[in-house]
Amino acid sequence: MNVMLGKSVENLLLKSREFLSHPGVRRYGSNTAWMFAEQILRMVAGFLVGVWVARYLGPEKFGLFSYALAFVAIFQGIAKLGLDGILVRDLVREPEKATVYLGTAFWLKLFGAVVTLLFIGLAIQFTGNDATANLYILIIASGLIFQSFEVIDFYFQSKVLAKFVSICKMVQLALSSLIKIFLVLIGADLIWFVMVSLIDMITLAITLNIAYKYNKNPSFYKYFDINLAKRLLKDSWPLILSSVAVMIYMRIDQVMIKNMLGDKEVGLYSAAVKLVEVWYFIPMIVAQSLFPAIVSVYDNKNEFYNRLMKLSCLLGYLGLALSLSLSIFSSFIVFKLYGSKYLESESILSIAAFSLFFLFWMSGVSRRQAIDLQIVALLATIFSAICNVVFNLLFIPQFGAKGAALGTVLSQFMAGPFFGFLHPKSRENVLIAVKGLVLPFKGFKS
Question: Are the CB atoms for 78 and 244 separated by under 8 Å?
């Protein structure tokens, strides 16, 4: 018996070594590890430095800063032109045309950034902002020009070389964090923190360009194919709409609070929301790690649904545990991190925390929609953005910033289980997610 067990363990170890030593596994595993490391470092360092900056600036200045960032973010999706995934796809399919694809996409994104910047300049004339707020918005929006260099990021993605992009982003993060810490220590004014947002975009553009040249790749700036540009834009329009809808959903509350209540309330709300958003990477990593195993049995519907239910169960209860923890200990968390100036953020956090439950719970089936229900996913995103605007109009005048937090939670519900159940093509996904929540009470099946 012991001999058989020993041989089984030896065979298992041998197969594991063979699997891990496979060139494809090592290549993709290394690529994923670099991306995860960069994302986690960005979350941790960005959160800690962000909290310190918020504590230093105080609710009013931090609110103005958050408003300027949110205002630009709403238009950022237009400048991106939805080319991210499409360009990676085409570079994988036709690597020999890389310079033409990169050049065409670069000039398209640059043109989109200029148009977006002009549009933002026009839009701020109708906001009622003072000259200082508009200046901050324009400084941050100027960074969209340098966003055009993201095409180099997509090139490295297509080559499974995330290492270079991750190093560039880590350099950007390190420089940004050090500058912010320095500014806090010397007691700098708000405008210098606004300038750092522009410096971040410039730094990333420079480092990506250096990485591209380091790999001895040919220059692409002289290339532009009008027919290719038309095809890329034709393929990308749903993604442009989706990006804009996502940013409206994510950031419109801060813009509306600023216009309805003022800078201080935006600061209090943004501080609370930051404590919620810092957890967003968890369902992304869990779903991204486990989803390949789920997709591998896509043709076996029973097993596919069974695994999707288990993923919904795992993420749903994880999200519920986080929501309850943040809500129950909101006063302690806010005071310890932000200090007494932000105590009013406690009630906002106690409400906004429950958006994590719906986000986590629906993450698994949302990834399933990305496989075969892309249009439904787009409609759900647009629906959530509309709901968030409506809820903010209803609740902010009555409940203040807490009303925006309540609107966010309800919007997550409306975009996830509510819209999913109403739409016949996605109803099955919601039922799978619901069954996932009752799975622990019925017993797991292998």
Answer: yes
Q: Which residues contact 426 (CB under 8 A, 6 or more apart)?
A: 369, 373, 376, 380, 419, 420
Nearest to 316 by CA among 408, 419, 441: 441
Whether the CB-CB separation of 118 and 173 falls below 8 Å is answered with: no
Instruction: Give the Å distances, CA to CA, from 330 to 317, 335, 402, 409.
Output: 19, 8, 13, 16
pLDDT digits (tens, 9 = 90+) for 332-384: 999 999 988 999 999 999 999 999 998 888 877 666 555 555 677 778 788 88
What's the pTM?
Answer: 0.81
| Beta carbons within 10 angstroms of residue 135's beta carbon | 15
CA nearest to 140, candidates 276, 273, 251, 240? 251
**Dist. CA 190–CA 42, nearest whole Å:** 22
Distances (CA, A) of 372 to 90, 240, 364, 367, 403: 20, 19, 14, 10, 35
Q: Which residues contact 269 (CB under 8 A, 6 or more apart)?
A: 63, 253, 254, 257, 345, 348, 401, 404, 405
Q: Tokens at residue 359, please?
A: 């986000």
Nearest alpha carbon to residue 294 among 304, 281, 284: 304
Q: Is the dihedral of CA 170, 171, 175, 176 positive or negative?
A: negative
Q: What is the pLDDT of residues 276-301, one digit of tens each?
A: 988 887 887 777 666 666 666 667 77
Q: Which residues of the chain have pLDDT under 50?
A: 1-2, 4-5, 7-9, 12-25, 27-28, 444, 446
